[in-house]
Amino acid sequence: MANGSFSRANALAAGRPQPNVRADGGSSVAVIDLRRPKIGRHPLTEFLCGHLKGVEYLWALAFVIPYVAVFLVFVAYPIVYGLWMGHNPALYGQLFADPVYLNTVINTLIYLAVAVNVHMFGAFLLSGFFVMRGWFVKALLLVFIMPWAVPALPTFISIHWMLNGQWGLINNILWDFFHINGPFWLSSRWIALFSIIGAYIWKYMPFWTVIFIAGRMAIPTELYEAAAVDGATGLRRFFHITFPLLATLYFVNTLLSTIFTVGDFTTPYFITNGAPVLETYTLANLGVHYAFDLMDPYLGVAAVMSALPLMIPLIIFLMRKLRRMQVEA
Questions:
Q1: Which of 9, 92, 253, 327 has the lowest CB atom count within 10 Å?
Q2: For the purposes of burial, counting CB atoms within 10 Å of the CB of 101, is it exposed (0-12), middle (13-18) or buried (19 or more)?
Q3: Of 237, 246, 240, which is closest to residue 219 (Cα–Cα)?
C-alpha cells in the first residue's frame, strides 16, 4: 500500500496520468492539465486593439496616427490656442465699448436671418422644379449651378465693380435703357449690406438646391402615385408627403448653412470691405480687421469668439428639434 502511494506521488510529480482504483477492482486514467492558465487582456488594451493582433495592429496604427496628428495640429491646437487668446474678460469690455463692434453684431444677425432663411427656402422650392423631367429643365439646372461652380474670389470682385456708382455695370444699364440714375450702392450702409446678402444668396443657393434635389429623388414614387389615386392635388402632396419627408434634411441644412454663414469672410470682404466707413462688417471680418489692420490679435480672436453666444442657442434648438422628430418617427 505504501509502495502504491509512493508511485502515485511520483507520477503526479512527473506530470504523468495516474490510475484510479475503482470499486470493482479496475482502474481508470485521470488526465492532469498542466498548461499555463489563460490570462485575459486589460480592458483598455482590449478596447484599443479589439480583435487585431501583431502585424494587423501595426498597420492600423500606421493608418490612424497621421490622421490623429493632423487633427491635433490643425484642429485641436488652433481651437485651444484661440480659447486661450480670448479668455481675458477685459477684451470683451473693450469690444462692447467700440461702436463698430455693436453695429457689426447687428449686421451679423441680419446677415444670418435673411441670407440663411431666404436661400434655404428658395433652394427647397427650386428643387421641386429641377426634379421635373425634360431636357430644358436639365439645361436650366446646369446654368443655375454655374454661380456655385465658379470660384468665389473672381465672382465677388466682379460684383464689387458691378456695384460701382460711377462705372458699374448696373448703373450703366439703368441709365442706358431707362435713363435712371442708379444709387451709390457702396455708399449706403443698408444698400451695401443687402447687396452682400443678395450676392451670398446668388452664390450659394445652387449648392443647397442640389442637396434638396437628392433628397427629393430619394422619396419613393409609389407614395406620389398612391396620393394621386386618392385624389390628392400637387399642393396636398407637397404638404403631406414631400415636406414631412424632407423636414429633417431641411433642418440639418439650415444648421450647416448657419455655421458656414457665421464664418463667411469672403463675401463681405470682397464686395464692400466694410464700406461705407466700417459699417458693413460681420464678426468674421471685424476679427480680421482687429487682428491685422489694428495689430491686436487677442482682440480679433475675442471678436470672433463673441459669435458663440449667437450660435449655441440656435444649435441647441435645432438639435432638440431633430431629436423630437426622430422620436416621433
A1: 327
A2: buried
A3: 246
The answer to whether 183 and 189 are in contact (CB under 8 A) is no
Question: Count of H helices and E strands in the chain?
Answer: 18, 2
How many domains does the structure of the chain reveal?
A: 3
Expressed as residue numbers, the domain containing 65 is 50-85
185-194 per-position pLDDT tens digit: 999 999 999 9
Q: Beta strands of the chain (E only): which ranges? A: 18-21, 27-30
> Of 251, 252, 243, 250, nearest to 219 (Cα)?
243
Rounded CA separation 154/150 (Å): 8
Euclidean distance between CA atoms 285 and 266, whole angstroms = 9
Instruction: Give Cβ neighbours of residue 114 (< 8 Å, ≥ 6 apart).
Output: 194, 197
Contacts of 163 (CB under 8 A, 6+ apart): 170, 185, 186, 195, 271
How many whole angstroms separate alpha carbon 295 and alpha carbon 122? 40
Question: 29 versus 165: which is more confidently predicted?
Answer: 165
pLDDT in tens, 249-262: 898 898 889 889 99
The answer to the question of residue 45 being in a domain is no
pTM: 0.78
More confident residue, 31 or 212: 212
Q: Which three cell numbers stand for residue 43?
A: 480592458
Residue 6 lies in a domain: yes
- The more confidently predicted of residues 234 and 1 is 234
